[in-house]
Amino acid sequence: MVLATLAGCVVLLLAAGVVVARRSLLVVTVCGGSMAPTYHDGDRVLVSRRRRPAAGMVVVLRQGDVAAEAAALAAHRSGYLVKRLAALPGDAVPAAVRPALGTQSPDLVPEDAVVVLGDDADSIDSRAWGFLPLRLVVGVVVADLRTAGR
Predict the structure, then answer these.
(1) Of 46-55, 70-79, 99-108, 130-139, which gets the smallest average pLDDT?
(2) Which three-class secondary structure state does DSSP give residue 63?
């Protein structure tokens, strides 16, 4: 009887652990070459939904209402974009992003907005879109799972 109760408790603890892990972690497949040389098309990354993002970190964004051309590029494989967080609300607007903002560009990133850049110079990112809503950031990449062939 004690063993059955103990086994039931272990099963419940394991189930609770799985639920917590699924809510706080996510595995995402990188689509496209915008993050080369850091990540390549098909690489897999582990994302923490609970870690607070900071400038310089690689983040995953929900495609949601991100610019139509980015959604069209990756929609066939993933609902996520992987980019490097260049600036948070209150940070200075990077010079590379200013042309996308027009002549009235602010000096600081507005409240509830972020600037993201791909590591590849030809990446479609805030250099084309300007600011993105902070709410689109799903989490921070915490581990590189790479594909088996690399």
Answers:
(1) 70-79
(2) coil
Residues 117, 87: Cα–Cα separation, whole Å: 9
pLDDT of residue 150: 60
Residue 143's nearest CA partner among 73, 41, 58 is: 58
CA distance 22 to 67: 28
Tell how many helices (H) and how many strands (E) occur in the chain: 4, 7
In this prediction the pTM is 0.79
pLDDT of residue 146: 78
46 forms beta bridges with 27, 143
* Coil vs helix vs strand at 148: coil
